[in-house]
Amino acid sequence: MSYSYKDIWKVSLPIMMGLLIQNVIQITDSIFLGRVGEIEFGASGLAGIYYMAFFMLAFGFSMGAQIMIGRRNGERNYDQIGNLVVQGMLFLLVFAGVLFISSKFFSNSLLPLFIKSPQVYEAANTYLDWRTYGFFFSSLNIMFRAFYVGIARTSVLTLNAVVMAVVNIIFDYGLIFGNLGMPQLGIAGAAIASVVAEIASVIFFTIYTFKVIDFKKYGFNKIKFEFSVVRRILSLSIFTMAQYAISSSTWFIFFLAIENHGERALAITNIVRTFYMIYFIPMNSLSTTANTLVSNTVGAKKYEEVLPLIKRVCIFNLTVILVMAGITAVNPEFWISLIASDKDISLVHETVNPLYVLLFALPICSLGTVLFNAISGTGNTKVALVFETITIILYVFAMYIIIIHNQASVAVSWTVEYVYWGTLMILSFLYLTRGKWQNKKI
């Protein structure tokens, strides 16, 4: 089971294409709302981060399930996989209700205390009023994703993402601007379009699974809720849930800190974040590939092949990111103008320096994300949570010193990414090369 570069590419390409088209949803929202107004553009980024801070709890659960699915697939215990998927879906539907109610409470009670601009708060709250309905449909989608990634049949992710992207673009174009006979809803239209795209994704995954998957082989024969199965998933995923929630919440803190510098600073940060999302498509797909291939390799007890596999994925990821960063660095104003409103030349020019700061952080990020996800692939999610916590403490401290205390420029503020990814990369490397991860049972 020695995975070559070709094998890594074969698994990661569909994930990459899926992420590419899925991110079209957020990127399309940003591009369209950039034409509506600077406040709506910045508010959508802030509200999107807020939504993700809640949603990543559910995503962390699905990652724990994905690791278990990958391990069972490596062990060839295929008949145990279906029940993991079904129990995960049932649990996440209930959990989505909890997230929905909690988000409504926090957005109405706490957001006004932290967002300085009344206009930004009003726009962000309008977006969230509709966007939070997506918790229910996203929860089903991430369990479908966990299943197909865990069994290394990732081509369906590309097809699903195409469906999501097409639906989202149509409804964005219609609902934001009032085209195609639809009402003009502005930022609310962007949120509704995202939810409709997620509904389309659930429908697609359901039809595809019934037509293609061998239900008997994978043990899809139980619908009854079994807490014992959920408890086993939670014993692993509770750490990834906490890890992802902590990680995404710090993004929200970062955006709040920037928002206090003004609406222009928030708009610039949202543009840079949009680039970040684009760069994270290959980085996230290859780190997900590392996670599932490490999980399958450990499940097959081929421990000696794990570190060479991680090294190959790291080299692959670094190469891709250096090429993408180089292309951006040649003419950054051109790429920025595609996202920001090209009518606002000053906004484009003010975004160049923060973008360069991000570009130089990308090589560290590309290595750190693969190494860190490889730890979760071994099943040692508790160790991953400890490393995430240490990293976040240093990250928030750096954020306080640089952004809040020193009131640094947007460009200097983005240097906190060096602290985050540098720390995570070093801790992950030391653990994988010197730690005892080979005999973790899940």
Sheet of most strands: none
Low-confidence runs of at least 5 consecutive residues = none
Distance between the ends: 20 Å
Apparent shape: globular
What percent of residues are in strands? under 5%
Say how many strands there are. 0
Computed over alpha carbons, the radius of gyration is 21 Å
By secondary-structure content and strand pairing, the structural class works out as mainly alpha
Description of the structure:
The protein has 442 residues and is mostly helical. The protein has one domain (5-434). Helices cover 84% and strands 0% of the residues. It has 17 helices and no strands. Helix 1 (5-36) runs parallel beside helix 7 (155-177), helix 1 (5-36) packs antiparallel against helix 11 (263-299) and helix 5 packs parallel to helix 8 (187-212). The chain is globular and about 55 Å long. The model has no long low-confidence stretch (mean pLDDT 87).
Please describe the topology of this protein.
Layout (H helix, E strand, L loop, with lengths): L4 H32 L1 H38 L5 H29 L1 H4 L3 H14 L2 H17 L4 H23 L9 H26 L2 H4 L8 H33 L3 H37 L6 H25 L1 H8 L5 H33 L3 H25 L4 H4 L2 H19 L8
Protein traits:
single chain, 442 residues, mainly alpha, 84% helix
Tell me briefly what this model is.
This protein has 442 residues and is mainly α.
